[in-house]
Amino acid sequence: MARVVLENVSKIFKGPKREPVYAVRQARLSIEDREFVVLVGPSGCGKSTTLRMIAGLEEIDEGTISIDGTVVNKVEPKDRDIAMVFQNYALYPHMTVFENMAFGLKLRKFPKAEIQQRVNETAELLGLGPYLDRLPKALSGGQRQRVAVGRAIVRKPKVFLFDEPLSNLDAQMRVQMRTEISKLHQRLGATMIYVTHDQVEAMTMGDRIVVMKDGVIQQVADPLTLYSQPANLFVAGFIGSPPMNALRGTLVEQGGALWFSEQNPGSPLLAALTEQQREKLSSFVGREVVLGLRPEHILDGAQRGATPYGSEVSATVEVVEPMGAETFLHLSTGAHTFIVRAAADARPQANSRLTMLFDMSRAHFFDAKTGQGIG
Fold this sequence. Notes:
It is a single chain. The chain folds into two domains: 4-238, P-loop containing nucleotide triphosphate hydrolases (Rossmann fold, 3-Layer(aba) Sandwich), CATH 3.40.50; 245-367, CATH 2.40.50.140. The mean pLDDT is 92. Strands 6-7-8-3-9-10 form a six-stranded mixed sheet, sandwiched between helices. Strands 13-12-11-14-20 form a five-stranded antiparallel sheet. The chain has a five-stranded antiparallel sheet with strand order 15-19-16-17-18, with no helix packed on it. It is elongated. Strand 17 and strand 18 (337-342) form a beta hairpin. The chain contains nine helices and 20 strands. By secondary structure, the chain is α+β, with helices and mostly antiparallel strands.
C-alpha cells in the first residue's frame, strides 16, 4: 500500500470578475500507509475537490501531492495506481456484476484466469457470489454499492478513494455499509481516504478525521481528540450530535474567583471556572469569550454530588425530544438556548423552569473574535 502526502495544495477557480476563488487553500496532510482517513465538512468545503486532486481528476494549482514517495502532479489518473468509488455507482447497466468487476482488469489485459480468480475472491469477500450473473438493475442499492467497491478491490491499488459512497442509500443501509467498509479496511489493510458530509460516518469509520471549512483544513485528529479537544468553534459545533453548546459572555473576577458571565442584560448566567482554567485564562479577564459545553456535561440539578465543579443554572424548557435511549432537552436562559442529553424517562413540561448543573471541569473556551480554542 502507500503513504499519501499533500504539501501546500491549492485549487483555484476564477470568480465572476476573474478574481481567484480558492476551493482548497494550502492543504497540508500526511496519510500514512494502511490508514483510514476521513475528510468531513459541509457542502462546498473542498473535501471532494481534495479527493479529486489526489485521484488526478482535478489539476493542482499550487503545491504537490505524492503517493508512495513519488510526486504525481503530472501523472495521469490511470497511472497513479489508485481506485475510486463514486457517489453514484457508475456501473455499466448492460454488463453483469462479474463483467462490471472485471472490466478494469480486461482493459489492463490481465490473463483470463487471474481475472476469474480476483473477481471470485472479491465477490466472496463482499457477499456477491450469488449475484455475479445479474445485471445492476436486478440488485438493491446496497448490492450495487458493493459491486462498485468490488470493482475497486479487484485492481489491488495502492490507495482507495471513496467520494460520499453511501449518500444515496437509506439510513439502515448506510449503517450496514459503513460497517462493511470498516471491516473491509481491516481485512485488506489498505490505505483509504473517505469523503463524507456526515460527521457520524466520520466518527465511526476514521482512524483520523480531517475537518474542512471553506477550503481550509481546520483540524486533523483521531475521533476522540476531535470530540474532546476541538481546535475551534467550527469543529466544536460540527463534530458531535447534538453539537457542543456555545454561550457568549465575558470572563470576570469576583470574590477571588474567575467567572463566566453570560451576555444577558436581565439575569446573566454565572459559572465559576476551575483553578486550572483560571491559570490558563487569566489574560482574558474582561474580554468576550465563548463557553462550550457538550450536552452530556450539563446535569440535572439533583446530581450536585456528581462533580465538584458544578455551577447551577436556571433555564426554561422549550422543547423535549424523546429519542428512545435518551431525551434531548432544549432549554433557554433568555439570552441563549442550549441542549441537554438527559435520561430516557425525562419528561419536563414545556415552559417549566429547571435547575441544571454545568460541569465546568468539562468546559471549553474559545476566543469570541477568532473562534480559536483558548482553554
